[in-house]
């Protein structure tokens, strides 16, 4: 004869559901072990959330340089004389000297 399955009370069902939210079961050394679930924000891992949403200033302030994208915001600096036609560079230098 088969063993009778015991029904859980509503309190036990709630406790079981809460345990399943907080912990997950993994195999370690061939045994099942219950470990805490990693923290998430809106179902996304915290590191992935930071990578997607943080701006470079916040990352720098919190010393998270490994998440900063090096290729994202390259600002090219043009010296003033590169914006002036070569024929007018001499005149521009004379104007600057007069202003000093």
Helix run count? 4
Cα separation of the termini: 105 Å
Ranges with pLDDT <50 over ≥5 residues?
none
Give the SSE string: HEEEEHHH
Mean pLDDT: 82
Class by helix and strand content? alpha+beta
Largest sheet: 2 strands, antiparallel
| Net shape | rod-shaped
Strand order of the largest sheet: 1-2
Radius of gyration: 32 Å
Provide the β-strand percentage band: 15-25%
Helix percentage range: 25-40%
Strand segment count: 4
Write the layout of secondary structure elements.
Elements: H1 10-22, E1 23-28, E2 31-36, E3 40-41, E4 44-45, H2 46-53, H3 56-61, H4 89-99
Antiparallel strand pairs: 1-2, 3-4
Verbal overview:
The chain is an alpha+beta fold and 100 residues long. The chain is built from four helices and four strands; from the N terminus they run αββββααα. The strands form two sheets. Strands 1-2 form a two-stranded antiparallel sheet. Strands 3-4 form a two-stranded antiparallel ribbon. It is rod-shaped and about 105 Å long. The mean pLDDT is 82.
Short description:
The chain has helices spanning 10-22, 46-53, 56-61, 89-99; strands at residues 23-28, 31-36, 40-41, 44-45. It is of the alpha+beta class and 100 residues long.
Features:
single chain; about 100 residues; alpha+beta; two-stranded antiparallel ribbon; 4 helices; rod-shaped
